[in-house]
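Journal club prep — side note

Before the paper discussion, L.F. wants everyone to see what a predicted structure for a comparable chain looks like in C-alpha coordinate form. Sequence:
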Amino acid sequence: MSKYSDELSYGFTSTLAPPVRETRIGVCSAFCGSCSQLRGDVKSGCAQMQRRKFDQSGGCQLGLACGIVSSLTNVVMITHSPLGCNSRYVAMGGMRRTMRASKGKKDEEFIWLHTNMGELDVVQGGIDKLRRAVLYAEKQYHPEAIIIANGCVPGIIGDDIDSLCSELEDQVSAKLVPIHCEGFKSRYVASGYDSAYHGVLRFLIDPYERYDKALNRASGSRDEGEERDRFKQSRTVNLFNVGSNSNGDEVELCRLVHALGLNPRFLPLHASLDDLKHIGEAALNVSVCATHDDYLLGHLKERFGTPYIIDTLPIGVKNTGIWLRKIAEYFHLEDEAERLIAIETAQLEEALAPIKERLKGKSIFVGGGETRILTTAEFFHSLGMKLLGVKAHNVDRFVEDILENVTDGELLIEVAAGMPAEELNILSKLKPDLYCGHVGANGWVTRLGIPTIPLFGQAFNFMGYSGAFELARKADKSLQNTNFARNISRNVELPLSEAWLASDVNDNIKERESA
Protein backbone atom coordinates (compact mmCIF):
# COMPACT_ATOMS: atom_id res chain seq x y z
CA MET A 1 0.00 0.00 0.00
CA SER A 2 1.29 3.50 -0.77
CA LYS A 3 2.68 5.43 2.17
CA TYR A 4 0.01 8.10 1.84
CA SER A 5 -2.82 5.54 2.15
CA ASP A 6 -1.74 4.77 5.71
CA GLU A 7 -2.61 8.34 6.72
CA LEU A 8 -6.20 8.24 5.45
CA SER A 9 -9.42 7.35 7.23
CA TYR A 10 -12.82 7.01 5.62
CA GLY A 11 -16.20 6.38 7.28
CA PHE A 12 -18.08 8.96 5.19
CA THR A 13 -21.07 6.77 4.32
CA SER A 14 -23.11 8.11 7.22
CA THR A 15 -23.38 11.39 5.27
CA LEU A 16 -25.63 12.01 2.29
CA ALA A 17 -22.74 13.02 0.01
CA PRO A 18 -18.98 12.44 0.07
CA PRO A 19 -16.50 15.24 0.73
CA VAL A 20 -14.87 16.65 -2.38
CA ARG A 21 -11.28 15.63 -3.02
CA GLU A 22 -9.95 19.13 -2.49
CA THR A 23 -10.77 18.79 1.21
CA ARG A 24 -10.32 15.03 1.55
CA ILE A 25 -6.91 14.45 -0.03
CA GLY A 26 -5.72 17.78 -1.42
CA VAL A 27 -5.46 18.36 -5.16
CA CYS A 28 -3.18 20.26 -7.50
CA SER A 29 -5.00 21.39 -10.65
CA ALA A 30 -2.60 24.06 -11.95
CA PHE A 31 1.14 23.63 -12.38
CA CYS A 32 3.85 23.79 -15.02
CA GLY A 33 7.44 23.10 -14.07
CA SER A 34 9.96 20.40 -13.24
CA CYS A 35 9.27 17.08 -11.55
CA SER A 36 11.53 17.96 -8.60
CA GLN A 37 9.65 21.21 -8.05
CA LEU A 38 6.27 19.43 -8.16
CA ARG A 39 7.48 16.80 -5.67
CA GLY A 40 8.36 19.50 -3.17
CA ASP A 41 5.26 21.60 -3.80
CA VAL A 42 2.88 18.63 -3.36
CA LYS A 43 4.45 17.73 -0.01
CA SER A 44 4.47 21.33 1.23
CA GLY A 45 0.94 22.06 0.01
CA CYS A 46 2.04 24.87 -2.31
CA ALA A 47 0.94 22.99 -5.43
CA GLN A 48 -2.60 22.69 -4.05
CA MET A 49 -2.78 26.48 -3.70
CA GLN A 50 -2.23 27.26 -7.38
CA ARG A 51 -5.04 28.28 -9.72
CA ARG A 52 -5.42 29.65 -13.23
CA LYS A 53 -6.34 33.19 -14.17
CA PHE A 54 -8.25 31.75 -17.11
CA ASP A 55 -9.65 28.22 -17.56
CA GLN A 56 -10.33 27.22 -21.14
CA SER A 57 -12.11 23.99 -20.28
CA GLY A 58 -12.42 21.31 -17.64
CA GLY A 59 -14.52 18.30 -16.78
CA CYS A 60 -17.69 17.54 -14.84
CA GLN A 61 -17.82 14.88 -12.17
CA LEU A 62 -21.36 13.90 -13.24
CA GLY A 63 -19.99 12.22 -16.37
CA LEU A 64 -17.47 10.08 -14.46
CA ALA A 65 -20.01 9.15 -11.78
CA CYS A 66 -22.60 8.08 -14.35
CA GLY A 67 -19.95 6.14 -16.28
CA ILE A 68 -19.49 3.86 -13.26
CA VAL A 69 -23.05 3.27 -12.08
CA SER A 70 -24.54 3.06 -15.58
CA SER A 71 -22.32 0.05 -16.30
CA LEU A 72 -24.12 -2.08 -13.71
CA THR A 73 -26.46 -4.81 -14.91
CA ASN A 74 -30.24 -4.24 -14.95
CA VAL A 75 -30.31 -0.64 -13.72
CA VAL A 76 -32.06 2.47 -14.97
CA MET A 77 -30.26 5.83 -14.86
CA ILE A 78 -32.22 9.00 -14.17
CA THR A 79 -30.38 12.29 -14.55
CA HIS A 80 -32.07 15.05 -12.60
CA SER A 81 -30.90 18.11 -14.50
CA PRO A 82 -31.42 20.10 -17.68
CA LEU A 83 -31.14 18.06 -20.87
CA GLY A 84 -27.59 19.17 -21.73
CA CYS A 85 -26.13 17.10 -18.90
CA ASN A 86 -27.09 13.96 -20.86
CA SER A 87 -24.96 14.78 -23.90
CA ARG A 88 -22.53 11.89 -23.30
CA TYR A 89 -25.11 9.18 -22.77
CA VAL A 90 -25.40 8.00 -26.37
CA ALA A 91 -21.65 7.35 -26.49
CA MET A 92 -21.79 5.85 -22.99
CA GLY A 93 -24.46 3.42 -24.13
CA GLY A 94 -22.34 2.32 -27.08
CA MET A 95 -19.30 1.79 -24.88
CA ARG A 96 -21.39 -0.17 -22.38
CA ARG A 97 -22.68 -2.49 -25.11
CA THR A 98 -19.17 -3.00 -26.53
CA MET A 99 -17.73 -3.89 -23.13
CA ARG A 100 -20.56 -6.29 -22.27
CA ALA A 101 -20.13 -8.06 -25.61
CA SER A 102 -16.37 -8.36 -25.15
CA LYS A 103 -16.93 -9.91 -21.72
CA GLY A 104 -19.47 -12.40 -23.05
CA LYS A 105 -22.27 -10.84 -21.00
CA LYS A 106 -25.88 -10.76 -22.13
CA ASP A 107 -26.67 -7.83 -24.41
CA GLU A 108 -28.66 -5.23 -22.52
CA GLU A 109 -29.92 -1.81 -23.51
CA PHE A 110 -28.63 1.19 -21.58
CA ILE A 111 -31.84 2.75 -20.26
CA TRP A 112 -31.58 6.35 -19.15
CA LEU A 113 -34.19 8.95 -18.39
CA HIS A 114 -33.90 12.64 -17.61
CA THR A 115 -36.12 15.21 -15.96
CA ASN A 116 -35.35 17.91 -18.56
CA MET A 117 -35.43 20.73 -16.05
CA GLY A 118 -36.35 24.14 -17.45
CA GLU A 119 -36.59 27.71 -16.17
CA LEU A 120 -39.91 27.10 -14.41
CA ASP A 121 -38.41 24.11 -12.56
CA VAL A 122 -35.57 26.30 -11.34
CA VAL A 123 -38.17 28.57 -9.72
CA GLN A 124 -40.65 25.96 -8.49
CA GLY A 125 -38.33 22.98 -7.98
CA GLY A 126 -38.05 19.77 -9.96
CA ILE A 127 -38.92 17.13 -7.37
CA ASP A 128 -42.35 16.40 -8.89
CA LYS A 129 -40.73 15.68 -12.24
CA LEU A 130 -38.23 13.39 -10.58
CA ARG A 131 -40.97 11.56 -8.69
CA ARG A 132 -42.82 10.87 -11.95
CA ALA A 133 -39.60 9.69 -13.59
CA VAL A 134 -38.86 7.21 -10.79
CA LEU A 135 -42.38 5.76 -10.85
CA TYR A 136 -42.28 5.54 -14.65
CA ALA A 137 -38.93 3.70 -14.56
CA GLU A 138 -40.32 1.19 -12.05
CA LYS A 139 -43.52 0.55 -14.01
CA GLN A 140 -41.98 0.45 -17.48
CA TYR A 141 -38.64 -1.34 -16.94
CA HIS A 142 -38.76 -3.19 -13.57
CA PRO A 143 -35.02 -2.71 -12.87
CA GLU A 144 -33.16 -3.99 -9.84
CA ALA A 145 -31.96 -0.46 -9.09
CA ILE A 146 -32.91 3.05 -10.12
CA ILE A 147 -29.92 5.36 -9.92
CA ILE A 148 -30.54 9.10 -9.64
CA ALA A 149 -27.68 11.38 -10.65
CA ASN A 150 -28.11 14.90 -9.31
CA GLY A 151 -26.87 17.71 -11.55
CA CYS A 152 -25.81 21.27 -10.78
CA VAL A 153 -29.20 22.96 -11.14
CA PRO A 154 -31.10 20.87 -8.56
CA GLY A 155 -28.03 20.97 -6.33
CA ILE A 156 -28.07 24.78 -6.37
CA ILE A 157 -31.81 25.21 -5.84
CA GLY A 158 -31.89 22.54 -3.13
CA ASP A 159 -34.04 19.72 -4.55
CA ASP A 160 -33.97 17.03 -1.85
CA ILE A 161 -33.47 13.79 -3.79
CA ASP A 162 -32.63 11.83 -0.64
CA SER A 163 -35.99 12.58 0.99
CA LEU A 164 -37.74 11.63 -2.24
CA CYS A 165 -35.95 8.27 -2.28
CA SER A 166 -37.04 7.64 1.30
CA GLU A 167 -40.60 8.59 0.38
CA LEU A 168 -40.74 6.22 -2.61
CA GLU A 169 -38.83 3.23 -1.29
CA ASP A 170 -42.05 1.48 -0.22
CA GLN A 171 -43.71 2.19 -3.58
CA VAL A 172 -41.09 0.59 -5.82
CA SER A 173 -39.37 -2.79 -5.81
CA ALA A 174 -36.11 -1.40 -7.19
CA LYS A 175 -33.38 -0.10 -4.92
CA LEU A 176 -33.18 3.70 -5.12
CA VAL A 177 -29.63 5.06 -5.25
CA PRO A 178 -29.10 8.84 -5.07
CA ILE A 179 -25.75 10.03 -6.45
CA HIS A 180 -24.63 13.55 -5.51
CA CYS A 181 -22.35 14.44 -8.43
CA GLU A 182 -23.08 18.14 -8.86
CA GLY A 183 -20.25 19.46 -11.01
CA PHE A 184 -19.95 22.86 -9.35
CA LYS A 185 -18.86 21.32 -6.05
CA SER A 186 -15.37 20.29 -7.16
CA ARG A 187 -12.73 21.41 -9.64
CA TYR A 188 -11.30 17.89 -9.48
CA VAL A 189 -13.34 15.84 -11.95
CA ALA A 190 -12.26 12.57 -10.28
CA SER A 191 -14.49 13.51 -7.33
CA GLY A 192 -17.16 11.89 -9.51
CA TYR A 193 -15.69 8.49 -8.72
CA ASP A 194 -16.20 9.14 -5.01
CA SER A 195 -19.77 10.31 -5.62
CA ALA A 196 -20.63 7.13 -7.50
CA TYR A 197 -19.01 4.79 -4.99
CA HIS A 198 -20.61 6.68 -2.11
CA GLY A 199 -24.05 5.71 -3.46
CA VAL A 200 -22.93 2.15 -4.20
CA LEU A 201 -21.54 1.71 -0.69
CA ARG A 202 -24.64 3.10 0.99
CA PHE A 203 -27.32 1.27 -1.00
CA LEU A 204 -25.88 -1.66 -2.98
CA ILE A 205 -23.22 -3.26 -0.76
CA ASP A 206 -24.54 -4.95 2.37
CA PRO A 207 -22.51 -6.22 5.34
CA TYR A 208 -21.95 -9.96 5.43
CA GLU A 209 -20.53 -12.60 7.76
CA ARG A 210 -16.82 -12.51 6.99
CA TYR A 211 -14.84 -15.75 6.86
CA ASP A 212 -11.37 -15.97 8.36
CA LYS A 213 -8.58 -15.46 5.83
CA ALA A 214 -6.87 -18.78 6.53
CA LEU A 215 -8.61 -22.15 6.33
CA ASN A 216 -8.66 -23.92 9.69
CA ARG A 217 -8.59 -27.59 8.72
CA ALA A 218 -8.43 -28.67 12.36
CA SER A 219 -12.01 -27.66 12.92
CA GLY A 220 -14.41 -30.57 12.69
CA SER A 221 -17.57 -28.50 13.03
CA ARG A 222 -17.75 -27.33 9.40
CA ASP A 223 -19.15 -29.38 6.52
CA GLU A 224 -17.26 -29.92 3.29
CA GLY A 225 -19.17 -27.23 1.37
CA GLU A 226 -18.43 -24.57 3.97
CA GLU A 227 -14.77 -25.55 4.07
CA ARG A 228 -14.59 -25.28 0.30
CA ASP A 229 -16.15 -21.81 0.36
CA ARG A 230 -13.78 -20.67 3.06
CA PHE A 231 -10.76 -21.89 1.13
CA LYS A 232 -11.94 -20.27 -2.11
CA GLN A 233 -12.42 -16.94 -0.37
CA SER A 234 -8.97 -17.14 1.19
CA ARG A 235 -7.51 -17.23 -2.35
CA THR A 236 -9.87 -14.70 -3.99
CA VAL A 237 -8.48 -11.38 -5.16
CA ASN A 238 -10.82 -8.55 -6.17
CA LEU A 239 -9.31 -6.55 -9.04
CA PHE A 240 -10.98 -3.15 -9.38
CA ASN A 241 -11.53 -2.12 -12.98
CA VAL A 242 -11.83 1.38 -14.36
CA GLY A 243 -13.68 2.88 -17.30
CA SER A 244 -10.49 3.00 -19.37
CA ASN A 245 -9.90 -0.76 -19.01
CA SER A 246 -10.46 -2.95 -22.01
CA ASN A 247 -11.53 -6.55 -21.74
CA GLY A 248 -8.06 -7.39 -23.06
CA ASP A 249 -6.56 -5.62 -20.04
CA GLU A 250 -8.76 -7.63 -17.69
CA VAL A 251 -7.97 -10.94 -19.40
CA GLU A 252 -4.23 -10.23 -19.16
CA LEU A 253 -4.29 -9.22 -15.49
CA CYS A 254 -6.50 -12.19 -14.59
CA ARG A 255 -4.03 -14.47 -16.41
CA LEU A 256 -1.13 -13.16 -14.34
CA VAL A 257 -2.93 -13.35 -10.99
CA HIS A 258 -4.28 -16.82 -11.80
CA ALA A 259 -0.72 -17.93 -12.63
CA LEU A 260 0.11 -17.29 -8.95
CA GLY A 261 -2.55 -19.83 -7.95
CA LEU A 262 -5.10 -17.19 -6.95
CA ASN A 263 -8.70 -16.57 -7.99
CA PRO A 264 -9.02 -13.13 -9.64
CA ARG A 265 -12.39 -11.39 -9.93
CA PHE A 266 -12.95 -8.04 -11.66
CA LEU A 267 -15.34 -5.55 -10.05
CA PRO A 268 -17.31 -3.28 -9.91
CA LEU A 269 -17.85 -2.01 -13.47
CA HIS A 270 -20.25 -4.16 -15.52
CA ALA A 271 -21.07 -6.23 -12.44
CA SER A 272 -24.50 -7.39 -11.37
CA LEU A 273 -26.03 -6.27 -8.10
CA ASP A 274 -25.55 -9.82 -6.83
CA ASP A 275 -21.83 -9.52 -7.60
CA LEU A 276 -21.71 -6.37 -5.48
CA LYS A 277 -23.38 -8.17 -2.57
CA HIS A 278 -20.37 -10.52 -2.45
CA ILE A 279 -17.69 -7.87 -2.92
CA GLY A 280 -16.55 -8.34 0.69
CA GLU A 281 -15.88 -12.04 0.18
CA ALA A 282 -12.22 -11.75 -0.80
CA ALA A 283 -8.86 -12.02 0.89
CA LEU A 284 -7.41 -8.95 -0.84
CA ASN A 285 -8.58 -5.96 -2.86
CA VAL A 286 -6.21 -4.72 -5.57
CA SER A 287 -6.44 -1.36 -7.27
CA VAL A 288 -5.67 -0.84 -10.93
CA CYS A 289 -5.75 2.97 -10.51
CA ALA A 290 -5.52 4.85 -7.19
CA THR A 291 -7.26 7.91 -8.65
CA HIS A 292 -10.27 5.74 -9.36
CA ASP A 293 -10.33 3.34 -6.43
CA ASP A 294 -9.18 4.81 -3.12
CA TYR A 295 -12.59 5.90 -1.80
CA LEU A 296 -14.16 2.49 -2.45
CA LEU A 297 -11.22 0.39 -1.24
CA GLY A 298 -10.77 2.47 1.90
CA HIS A 299 -14.41 2.02 2.89
CA LEU A 300 -14.35 -1.71 2.09
CA LYS A 301 -11.38 -2.12 4.42
CA GLU A 302 -13.19 -0.29 7.22
CA ARG A 303 -16.43 -2.21 6.65
CA PHE A 304 -15.10 -5.74 6.01
CA GLY A 305 -11.50 -5.57 7.15
CA THR A 306 -10.24 -6.45 3.66
CA PRO A 307 -6.70 -5.13 3.10
CA TYR A 308 -5.90 -3.48 -0.19
CA ILE A 309 -3.02 -2.65 -2.53
CA ILE A 310 -3.07 0.69 -4.29
CA ASP A 311 0.58 1.28 -5.18
CA THR A 312 0.82 1.45 -8.96
CA LEU A 313 -0.81 0.79 -12.29
CA PRO A 314 0.37 -2.36 -14.12
CA ILE A 315 1.59 -0.75 -17.34
CA GLY A 316 5.03 -1.64 -18.68
CA VAL A 317 7.56 -4.18 -17.48
CA LYS A 318 8.67 -2.43 -14.30
CA ASN A 319 5.27 -1.47 -12.93
CA THR A 320 3.61 -4.77 -13.83
CA GLY A 321 6.38 -6.46 -11.85
CA ILE A 322 5.79 -4.16 -8.86
CA TRP A 323 2.06 -4.85 -9.02
CA LEU A 324 2.54 -8.63 -9.09
CA ARG A 325 5.13 -8.62 -6.31
CA LYS A 326 2.82 -6.69 -4.01
CA ILE A 327 0.03 -9.21 -4.53
CA ALA A 328 2.38 -12.17 -4.11
CA GLU A 329 3.87 -10.72 -0.93
CA TYR A 330 0.47 -10.70 0.78
CA PHE A 331 -0.05 -14.43 0.05
CA HIS A 332 3.62 -15.38 0.68
CA LEU A 333 4.04 -16.35 -2.97
CA GLU A 334 7.24 -14.38 -3.59
CA ASP A 335 9.11 -17.26 -5.22
CA GLU A 336 6.23 -18.03 -7.57
CA ALA A 337 6.01 -14.37 -8.53
CA GLU A 338 9.71 -14.09 -9.31
CA ARG A 339 9.58 -17.16 -11.55
CA LEU A 340 6.53 -15.78 -13.37
CA ILE A 341 8.08 -12.32 -13.81
CA ALA A 342 11.35 -13.80 -15.09
CA ILE A 343 9.56 -15.91 -17.73
CA GLU A 344 7.25 -13.10 -18.85
CA THR A 345 10.03 -10.50 -18.95
CA ALA A 346 12.36 -12.72 -20.97
CA GLN A 347 9.68 -13.43 -23.57
CA LEU A 348 8.67 -9.77 -23.77
CA GLU A 349 12.23 -8.47 -24.08
CA GLU A 350 12.86 -10.83 -26.97
CA ALA A 351 9.72 -9.59 -28.74
CA LEU A 352 10.56 -5.94 -28.03
CA ALA A 353 14.18 -6.08 -29.25
CA PRO A 354 13.53 -5.03 -32.88
CA ILE A 355 11.00 -2.42 -31.81
CA LYS A 356 13.48 -0.89 -29.34
CA GLU A 357 16.00 -0.46 -32.13
CA ARG A 358 13.54 1.59 -34.16
CA LEU A 359 12.21 3.64 -31.20
CA LYS A 360 15.60 4.41 -29.66
CA GLY A 361 16.24 8.15 -29.53
CA LYS A 362 12.71 9.13 -30.59
CA SER A 363 11.04 11.71 -28.36
CA ILE A 364 7.60 11.44 -26.78
CA PHE A 365 5.13 13.45 -24.67
CA VAL A 366 2.38 11.74 -22.63
CA GLY A 367 -0.88 13.33 -21.44
CA GLY A 368 -3.83 12.04 -19.37
CA GLY A 369 -4.63 10.78 -15.87
CA GLU A 370 -1.84 11.12 -13.33
CA THR A 371 -1.08 7.47 -12.54
CA ARG A 372 -1.50 6.23 -16.09
CA ILE A 373 0.73 8.85 -17.70
CA LEU A 374 3.59 8.34 -15.23
CA THR A 375 3.60 4.56 -15.61
CA THR A 376 3.19 4.80 -19.39
CA ALA A 377 5.97 7.39 -19.63
CA GLU A 378 8.29 5.15 -17.61
CA PHE A 379 7.68 2.31 -20.06
CA PHE A 380 8.45 4.45 -23.12
CA HIS A 381 11.62 5.64 -21.40
CA SER A 382 12.62 2.00 -20.83
CA LEU A 383 12.30 1.45 -24.59
CA GLY A 384 15.03 4.00 -25.17
CA MET A 385 12.73 6.89 -26.08
CA LYS A 386 13.45 10.43 -24.92
CA LEU A 387 10.72 11.61 -22.55
CA LEU A 388 10.15 15.35 -23.08
CA GLY A 389 7.31 15.83 -20.62
CA VAL A 390 3.93 14.75 -19.30
CA LYS A 391 0.59 16.46 -18.73
CA ALA A 392 -1.66 15.29 -15.87
CA HIS A 393 -5.31 16.22 -15.48
CA ASN A 394 -4.73 16.66 -11.75
CA VAL A 395 -2.16 15.56 -9.19
CA ASP A 396 -2.73 14.37 -5.64
CA ARG A 397 -0.60 12.67 -3.04
CA PHE A 398 -1.34 9.17 -4.32
CA VAL A 399 1.42 9.65 -6.89
CA GLU A 400 4.04 10.82 -4.37
CA ASP A 401 5.83 7.46 -4.49
CA ILE A 402 5.81 7.36 -8.30
CA LEU A 403 7.13 10.93 -8.51
CA GLU A 404 9.93 10.01 -6.11
CA ASN A 405 11.00 7.25 -8.50
CA VAL A 406 11.26 9.57 -11.52
CA THR A 407 15.00 9.77 -12.16
CA ASP A 408 14.90 12.95 -14.26
CA GLY A 409 14.19 15.73 -11.79
CA GLU A 410 14.00 18.26 -14.64
CA LEU A 411 11.23 16.39 -16.47
CA LEU A 412 8.55 18.89 -17.52
CA ILE A 413 5.17 18.27 -15.87
CA GLU A 414 2.05 20.27 -16.66
CA VAL A 415 -1.07 19.85 -14.53
CA ALA A 416 -4.27 20.90 -16.24
CA ALA A 417 -7.74 19.38 -16.64
CA GLY A 418 -8.55 20.17 -20.24
CA MET A 419 -6.72 23.37 -21.25
CA PRO A 420 -5.72 22.18 -24.75
CA ALA A 421 -4.43 25.68 -25.58
CA GLU A 422 -1.78 25.40 -22.85
CA GLU A 423 -0.78 21.90 -23.90
CA LEU A 424 -0.49 22.97 -27.54
CA ASN A 425 1.67 25.92 -26.45
CA ILE A 426 4.07 23.50 -24.76
CA LEU A 427 4.05 20.95 -27.58
CA SER A 428 4.70 23.59 -30.24
CA LYS A 429 7.98 24.36 -28.44
CA LEU A 430 9.01 20.82 -27.48
CA LYS A 431 8.12 19.29 -30.87
CA PRO A 432 8.06 15.61 -29.80
CA ASP A 433 8.24 12.87 -32.42
CA LEU A 434 5.18 11.19 -30.87
CA TYR A 435 2.30 12.09 -28.56
CA CYS A 436 0.43 9.54 -26.43
CA GLY A 437 -2.69 11.09 -25.00
CA HIS A 438 -6.14 10.96 -23.49
CA VAL A 439 -9.40 10.95 -25.43
CA GLY A 440 -10.08 14.39 -26.92
CA ALA A 441 -6.48 15.62 -27.03
CA ASN A 442 -5.13 13.71 -30.02
CA GLY A 443 -7.18 15.62 -32.58
CA TRP A 444 -5.74 18.94 -31.45
CA VAL A 445 -2.19 17.63 -31.30
CA THR A 446 -2.38 16.19 -34.82
CA ARG A 447 -2.90 19.73 -36.11
CA LEU A 448 0.66 20.45 -35.02
CA GLY A 449 1.85 17.69 -37.34
CA ILE A 450 2.71 15.37 -34.42
CA PRO A 451 1.73 11.68 -34.79
CA THR A 452 -0.45 10.44 -31.94
CA ILE A 453 -1.48 7.18 -30.28
CA PRO A 454 -4.20 6.70 -27.64
CA LEU A 455 -3.35 6.42 -23.96
CA PHE A 456 -6.12 3.85 -23.51
CA GLY A 457 -9.00 2.32 -25.42
CA GLN A 458 -11.77 -0.17 -24.81
CA ALA A 459 -10.78 -2.17 -27.91
CA PHE A 460 -7.05 -2.40 -27.13
CA ASN A 461 -4.78 -3.99 -24.55
CA PHE A 462 -2.46 -1.69 -22.58
CA MET A 463 -1.83 -3.48 -19.26
CA GLY A 464 0.40 -6.31 -18.17
CA TYR A 465 3.08 -7.87 -20.37
CA SER A 466 0.94 -8.35 -23.47
CA GLY A 467 -0.25 -4.75 -23.07
CA ALA A 468 3.35 -3.54 -22.94
CA PHE A 469 4.06 -5.21 -26.28
CA GLU A 470 0.91 -3.76 -27.85
CA LEU A 471 1.76 -0.27 -26.59
CA ALA A 472 5.28 -0.47 -28.01
CA ARG A 473 3.94 -1.84 -31.30
CA LYS A 474 1.47 1.05 -31.60
CA ALA A 475 4.24 3.60 -31.10
CA ASP A 476 6.46 1.88 -33.63
CA LYS A 477 3.69 1.62 -36.22
CA SER A 478 2.69 5.26 -35.80
CA LEU A 479 6.24 6.51 -36.36
CA GLN A 480 6.80 4.39 -39.46
CA ASN A 481 4.42 6.60 -41.45
CA THR A 482 3.74 10.16 -40.26
CA ASN A 483 2.10 11.45 -43.46
CA PHE A 484 -1.37 11.67 -41.94
CA ALA A 485 -0.32 14.08 -39.17
CA ARG A 486 1.75 16.17 -41.59
CA ASN A 487 -1.14 16.45 -44.04
CA ILE A 488 -3.55 17.49 -41.30
CA SER A 489 -1.07 20.14 -40.12
CA ARG A 490 -0.70 21.58 -43.62
CA ASN A 491 -4.44 21.80 -44.23
CA VAL A 492 -6.07 22.48 -40.85
CA GLU A 493 -5.02 25.49 -38.78
CA LEU A 494 -5.08 25.75 -35.01
CA PRO A 495 -7.43 28.44 -33.62
CA LEU A 496 -4.53 29.93 -31.63
CA SER A 497 -2.58 33.10 -32.24
CA GLU A 498 1.19 33.23 -32.68
CA ALA A 499 1.32 35.48 -29.61
CA TRP A 500 -0.31 32.75 -27.49
CA LEU A 501 1.97 30.03 -28.77
CA ALA A 502 4.99 32.21 -27.97
CA SER A 503 3.81 33.05 -24.42
CA ASP A 504 4.81 31.35 -21.16
CA VAL A 505 1.99 29.16 -19.80
CA ASN A 506 3.09 30.00 -16.26
CA ASP A 507 1.83 33.54 -16.84
CA ASN A 508 -1.66 32.04 -16.56
CA ILE A 509 -0.99 30.35 -13.19
CA LYS A 510 -1.19 32.15 -9.87
CA GLU A 511 -1.35 31.25 -6.20
CA ARG A 512 -4.87 31.06 -4.88
CA GLU A 513 -5.84 33.83 -2.50
CA SER A 514 -6.69 32.72 1.03
CA ALA A 515 -10.35 32.78 1.97
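L.F.'s comment for the group: The two ends are 34 Å apart (CA to CA). Keep this in mind when we get to the figures.
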